[in-house]
Amino acid sequence: MELSSRPSRWFSGIGFGVLVGGLTAVAAIAVIGRAWAACDIGSNAGANGMGLLFLAPVIWIAAAVPWVVLHGTLGRRHPTTALMAGLIVTLWFTWFLVTWLGMPDSYPASTCPGNVPPWWPSFIPA
Fold first, then answer.
1. pLDDT grade, residue 88 (50/70/90)?
2. Which region holds residue 114: left if phi is over 0, alpha if psi is between -120 and 50, else beta?
3. 107: Cα within 13 Å, side-chain hemisphere
């Protein structure tokens, strides 16, 4: 049995997914933490930071899986389409996490009206 010189499409997708998933997790956690701080959500900065620390690997894995699947399936014949689909899924997933976790509707809006931070862009739905 002879080893292939090219890595499998799935293995290259894993590396790409880990990289993009990690960047997505860092960006989402930074924005969620900033939204929590601006709207005074949670008990204190230490508790909020610890909660986000436990969420980081879950977000990382959840953001990496679509890249691995897209790169391994669609990327074989249409690599540009796989890249664009991955970017769209990543942007949607980041927006979903930030609006779902960062701006909870059930929390009393003491500082931010409607639990939307004042720095949140008006053209992005919250």
1. very high
2. left
3. 20
- Residue 4, token pair as written in the block: 């292939």
Rounded distance between C-alpha atoms, residue 119 and residue 22, angstroms: 24
30: which residues sit within 8 A by CB, 6+ positions away?
A: none
Q: Radius of gyration (Cα) for the chain, nearest Å? A: 18
pTM over 0.90, yes/no: no
105-121 per-position pLDDT tens digit: 777 767 787 778 888 88
104 DSSP 8-state letter: -
Tokens of 124: 């992005």
Instruction: Give 22-43 pLDDT, tens digit per residue.
Output: 999 999 999 998 888 888 777 7
**102 three-class SS:** coil
- The percent of the chain in helix, strand and coil, each rounded to the nearest 5, is 70, 0, 30
In three-state form (DSSP H/G/I as H, E/B as E, the rest C), the secondary structure along 19-50 is: HHHHHHHHHHHHHHHHHHHHCCCCCCHHHHHH
- Token pair, residue 52, equals 């986000």
